[in-house]
Amino acid sequence: DHRVCILWDHGGGSAAGVCYDERTKRSLSLNDLRAAFEAAAVADHDKPPFEVIGFDACLMATADVMHDLHGLTRYMVASEEIEPGNGWDYTGWVGALARDPSMNGERLGKAICDTYLAGCEAYGTADAATLSVVDMRSLPKLREAYEAFGTAALRRAEKNPQAFFTSFSRAAGNAESYGGNTREQGYANMVDLGSLARTSRSLLPVEADNLRQAVQESVVYKVNGPYRLESSGLSGYYS
């Protein structure tokens, strides 16, 4: 009755894609992902071909990935942050599915999240762990709020771009980010959308509140370690 597809390997977020091939030195871009799924199944927003598409890979819980999978899956399960080497606990969540094969994607996603965090705690890698379950039916509202947030930023910047973008850059720098955000770490350029909405609220009060609410409605379940308390479940690209 339900189909699940899990992509496992290195992930790089919205710009870098997923499933880095160490032989060819290439990854699947988000366009590659969309094309591959559309070659195998017909996208349908009301009755998507997959119940869950999950990423046992780093940095893939992004609004851009969500956008490119719209119509293909009912739920997406992915991590905002870099995943530790232990990855998902397949014995845990597949075992839960075996005990209750009737569970839908939301409940399966919750089992994936809970067993993942428990596994990270067992391996001592839970401090910065994140994993979230996203309901794809919420994408239209999220996309509208995200685009309104960006449009409002550009309009506010028209009169004094340097002053606005200096302030906005500071807000982004104070938001929770993932995968490295310094010269020493490298730059993944992935910023938590809920956290960015909070730190930029003084600049874009209405749009920031709408974005934060849309993110909260999109993420139906999430787990995070004590060093990632600002995790809202979805990130966005900010260079």
Q: Number of helical runs?
A: 9
- Radius of gyration over all CA atoms, rounded: 18 Å
- Written as H for each helix and E for each strand, in order along the chain, the element string is EEHEEHEHEHHEHHEEEEHHEE
**Main pleated sheet:** 5 strands, mixed
Q: Could you say which overall geometry the principal axes of the C-alpha atoms support?
A: globular
The portion of residues assigned to helices is 40-55%
Average pLDDT score:
96
Strand content: 15-25%
Please count the beta strands (DSSP E, at least 2 residues each).
Answer: 13
Give the uncertain stretches in residue-range form: none
Structural class: alpha+beta
Distance between the termini: 41 Å
Strand order of the largest sheet: 1-5-6-7-12
What does this entry look like structurally?
This protein is of the alpha+beta class. It has helices at 13-16, 30-40, 63-68, 90-99, 105-123, 139-157, 161-174, 193-199, 205-218; strands at residues 4-8, 11-12, 17-21, 26-28, 50-56, 73-78, 130-135, 177-178, 181-182, 186-187, 190-192, 219-224, 235-237. The strands form 4 sheets. Strands 1-5-6-7-12 form a 5-stranded mixed β-sheet. Strands 8-11-13 form a 3-stranded antiparallel β-sheet. A two-stranded antiparallel ribbon has the order 3-4. The model has no long low-confidence stretch (mean pLDDT 96).
